[in-house]
Amino acid sequence: MSARPAGSVAAALGPRLDDLVRTLARNAAEVDRSGCFPVQSVAELRSSGLFGLLVPTEFGGLGGTLHDLAEIGARLAGGCMSTALIWAMHCQQVDSIVRFGTDTLHADVLPRIAAGDVYVASVTTERGSGGHLLTAQSALADDASGVRLVRDAPIVTGGEHADGFLVTMRDAADANPHHVTLVYADRSDLTIEQSGDWDALGMRGTRSVALKLEGHVSENNVIGKRGDYRTVAIESMIPAAHISWSACWLGVAQGALRDVIGLIRSPRRPSSIDVASPLVASRLARIRCDLELVSACLARVTDEVAELWSTGRTLSAPEVQIHINTLKIVAAERTLAAVDSMIELVGLSTGYLRSSPIPLERNLRDLRSATLNYANDRLLIANGTLILLDKEVTLL
Q1: Residue 342, domain extent
Q2: In the structure, what pLDDT confidence band is assigned to residue 128 with cuts at 50, 70 and 90?
Q3: pLDDT of residue 6
């Protein structure tokens, strides 16, 4: 990452952030083993104020920036990837509310988010269309007092424990599937039925279960213009997602390399590792190259998006969309490759076994989800189309 701006939230938290990371790390193995939601770790994040990181100070939040989101996400992921991703995805939803929510919704929900009382989950997947973000089949129904929604979502990260939900819906029964509306619903506004479990290879603590949601909300709970979720996604949710996800993945891989270096430099170094071997040095260098490249891409994209936000300019330009998508693709692929190379370096007993003193096998399983968490193939297809619109080949 680029140099931390003076007065950042991470700097202000100081030792408190270090304590939070240690708490997450202490709980990470049990969260993974049991596949349970990280209740204690999330409770610590709520009480720390970090659930209100992106809430403006006028509503009681920390008034944090995109750089804060990236830096803190990476730090938290070094403790527990599942908890960090839960927090990062909550922050993505909060940014959409802040940027596109109504004044009434701001006054109602932002102070509660800032106080740690509301954890917001995302409902964007749908049976039949999977994770296709910009279309929806389930339709809103209007009435005199607001809108009614019925939604069947196969994956809702942290949905069992969320206090509120941002839900994508087709704008009306006769609307085009691309006319998608985003609405906020408090848990108390909904009838919720769990319709599927979560027993995954990695990211086990996210508890990304299937839920059926049904309820009624005020028209004031619509985020952005009716039928124009695309603008919310492009200007807020997608960049916040790709930046925060990439930061979390980098944080896991960076922490893993820190563990490997510490092990190699310690008396517990596996006998199979010869520190004088050119092969060991070459493998370490390749791993570091991967992390440096992801870090540089993350820093530059974060700077670009933050600058466009601060000047009120759109993020819809083809080259900006290419940069944001490329960050996600590169971060997902290279952090996984880096941890895989670390396992190859330290060998079976240290890198592959769950009883190892360093959790490389858990890091690998968690990072395996990265290319699937909004599939890289979809982003590559999108970039292939966008590239033809950027005749100047405007690189980062």
Answers
A1: 229-387
A2: confident
A3: 44
Give ∠ CA 25-28-31 in degrees, rounded to 5.
155
Residues 257-311: tens digit of each pLDDT: 999 999 999 998 988 899 999 999 999 999 999 999 999 999 999 999 999 999 9
Same domain? For 207 and 239 the reply is: no
Query: Is the pLDDT at 4 greater than 70, yes or no?
Result: no
Statement to judge: residues 345 and 276 lie in one domain: yes
CA dihedral 133, 137, 142, 145 (to 10 degrees): -50
**How far, in Å, CA of 242 to CA of 88, rounded?**
10
φ, ψ for residue 290, nearest 5 deg: -60, -45
Q: How far apart are CA 249 and CA 345, in angstroms?
A: 20
* Tokens of residue 8, six digits: 């950042």
Task: For CA atoms 178, 330, 210, 97, give the dihedral sign.
Answer: negative
Rg (alpha carbons) of the chain, rounded to whole number: 21
- 100 and 143 in a single domain? The answer is no
Q: 185 with 152, same domain?
A: yes
Contact 35, 198 (CB under 8 A): yes
Instruction: Determine the 3-state secondary structure of 139 from DSSP.
Output: strand
Using the 3D structure, point to which of 173, 202, 223 is the last residue of a domain: 223
Q: Each residue of 64-86: pLDDT tens digit?
A: 999 999 999 999 999 999 999 99
- In this structure, are 96 and 132 located in the same domain? no
Is the distance from CB of 174 to CB of 227 less than 8 angstroms?
Answer: no
Neighbour order of strands in the sheet with 146-156:
141-143, 146-156, 209-217, 190-196
* pLDDT tens digit sequence for 102-126: 999 999 999 999 999 999 999 999 9
Q: Is 4 within a domain? A: no
Q: What is the pLDDT of residue 7?
A: 54
DSSP for 185-239 reads: EEGGGEEEEEEE----SS-GGG--EEEEEEEEE-GGGEESSTTBHHHHIIIIIHH
**Token reading at 30:** 């049990």
- Sheet with 120-123, strands from edge to edge, namely 120-123, 164-170, 180-186, 222-223
